[in-house]
Design a protein that fits this description.
about 0% strand, flat, 2 domains, mainly alpha, two-stranded antiparallel sheet
Amino acid sequence: MTDPSNAVLLRLNRPGRPTRTRAVGSSNRRRRAFGYALMAPMLLMLLGFIYVPLIDALRTSFTDASLATPGSHFVGLRQYRELVESSRFWHIFYQTVVYTLLSVAGSLVLGVLAAVWLRSASRLSPFVRAIMLVPWIAPPLVTAFVWAYLYRDTGPLGQLAYTLGLTGQQPVDFLADRSGIAGIAVAFGAVIQVGIWAGFPFVFLFALAALTAIPEEVYEAARLDGAGAFALFRWITVPLIAPVIETTALLLTIIRFGGADLPFLLTGGGPGDSTSVFGVLIYNTAFGSLDSSKAAALGVMVFVLTLPLSIVYVRRSLRQMRP
């Protein structure tokens, strides 16, 4: 006799009648194809605006290409060797590291403190929170214009410093002052301050989101044990928001290390190279000196320097997304 289960399978698998397995497989293929179709525009944009220019920059860095003359020749590692042997390169590398570290550290401190201050609900909290985000929302061009006006010798800060007797016999344009301490000019300090002002709302937003996820019962239990405000911040707030703050710091470091917007818009890297960073150096090399091959080599070096931070950032973000 024929087993009943086999009879069912025979009926399902008769010629001319699709099996359930085939139907499920066809549905999965259609679903995957639809997903790939949705991803295609983004992948094409990444290919056209990220990967193709990156490969072309890598190719250009091994040539003597220039915007002033047509054609180019392969020169190997000459552009990289000239950069590494240049004292100007190392000076700007030092300033880039200082600008990145100080602007990110200042943004972290101000952002976390502002988030802790505004964590408690009050009538003014929504309004103040919205005001806090203005420096981050404002376009870099607007930010640079406002602070350039404030820092010039005829601006409010320049006049205030002159009135208080801090600038000697005449007002000082802070963005043109090369005097300073430890190789950091006053103009460079002003650029760092603007970087902190523009970056702290980014930290504030993530820190506030992390703080709202902490149950109030945790703080109440600590207060019952006699913990004060500083102990609550040191032993509860900081450890619980640390993963979010670390990820935010990594992303902001990547942005600041390769960014050129604020330093370029405020000073253009001047006076001299006292406020120049890698992003400004790349722009001035490519469009000021018309040396596209050396600018490409600088871009590749910045990419290599920030790549480890990008990998760490992606890995931490994926780890935080896991349940």
